[in-house]
């Protein structure tokens, strides 16, 4: 009698119970996803109309640049794969690529439209991490060539070409850019779409606010023909080899 009673009281996982548990788990997952999506949408919903327009313009500009790049690559492929003039097209493409890689590597001077970002630091509090944030915002906005300027140890303006390997470090006064000592005022010269670059600097809660929190100030000026003239010496890789 007691054995039968225990068997009746023992919980059993019926198929219907398993199905209900699975459905409840899926419902909970859906609620979590919905809450997170709502939070992300809420950030944009609380943004000002000017900020939304600025973000939309930046996305549109990036889309246009990608379409242009696709069009250029498609045209180049057609020229290189046709029999007529393939050699001349290949040489022209090689020269163009060499110039482009030279700009990216910092071994070739570049001119074009862009922005001047001047950062004053009267209290000597603007850190290298904040300047790195400025640089990353410029890169994310499509900056194709960047130069950082500051006052050197001798008192004159010193320019450093900024590339992928550039390192920014804090010093007792000012910063070190690729081991070159610079003190404020700092100035970034960035080539790219002036409107997009200037908009990236003015995003609420972005770099301008970060500089202001450390006692500095930011001034952005657009230009149609700026020059990035600082060059970087080519170094031979010690370990990396072409694959």
List the helices and strands and how they pair.
Layout: H1 2-9, H2 15-45, H3 49-81, H4 86-105, E1 110-120, H5 128-140, E2 145-151, E3 157-162, E4 168-170, E5 175-177, E6 180-191, H6 194-201, H7 207-213, E7 217-228
Antiparallel strand pairs: 1-6, 1-7, 2-3, 2-6, 4-5, 5-6
Architecture overview:
This protein has 243 residues and is of the alpha+beta class. Among the domains are: 69-105; 111-228, Protein of unknown function DUF881 (Alpha-Beta Plaits). 49% of the residues lie in helices and 22% in strands. Strands 1, 2, 3, 4, 5, 6 and 7 form a 7-stranded antiparallel beta sheet that branches. A hairpin with a 4-residue loop joins β4 (168-170) and β5. α3 (49-81) runs antiparallel to α4 (86-105). The longest helix is centred in the first third of the chain and has 33 residues, at 49-81. The chain is globular, with a radius of gyration of 28 Å. The model has no long low-confidence stretch (mean pLDDT 80).
Q: Kindly report how far apart the N and C termini lie.
A: 78 Å
Class from secondary-structure proportions = alpha+beta
> Helix content range of the residues, please?
40-55%
Query: Can you tell me the CATH architecture of the domain at 111-228?
Result: 2-Layer Sandwich
Percent strand: 15-25%
Radius of gyration: 28 Å
Total helices: the number is 7
Shape: globular
CATH topology grouping of the domain at 111-228: Alpha-Beta Plaits
The CATH superfamily of the domain at 111-228 turns out to be: Protein of unknown function DUF881
CATH hierarchy class name of the domain at 111-228: Alpha Beta
List segments where confidence is low: pLDDT < 50 over at least 5 consecutive residues. Answer: none
| Strands, count | 7
